[in-house]
Fold this sequence. Notes:
The protein is an alpha/beta fold. The protein has six helices and six strands. The longest helix is centred in the N-terminal third of the chain and has 22 residues, at 3-24.
Amino acid sequence: MSASDRFAFHEACRVKAIEIALTLGMKSKLSLNVIMPNDVAGKPECFRTAMAAAKRCHFPVDQLMFEITEGERVDDLPGLADVFRTFKRQGFASAIDDFGAAYAGFGLLAAFQPDVVKIDMSLVRNIHIDPVRLAIVKRFATTCGRRGSRPLCGSYLI
């Protein structure tokens, strides 16, 4: 599948998610995954259809959150950061999903500071019996807070 076909499919999924969230009367953030970050890096116009769907449906833009997933190494971190800065100016929130897994690491976090950092479950599972992971997550949560990002584990703010 080509990058443009893949992007069109993902964009259609994001539009459908907005329509369903509206139908359900959703009041919380709607997370829209950016499955293939290299398909959007350097393309601030990339979510035009999702933005148009939100406006058409009267779904509040400030309830939309675009998430970078961990499945692909980002080749153009500055370009991706530019896209997320554009989103932020338009009222969208941003997130890194599964931080600490695969390609969702410190390089991605250093490139841009998202509103939310979702810590991978592998780092917090049984953390109460692992002092090393506990220390890492505590320091990381403190650093996120200082940079203006909210660290989450699952749906829990830490």
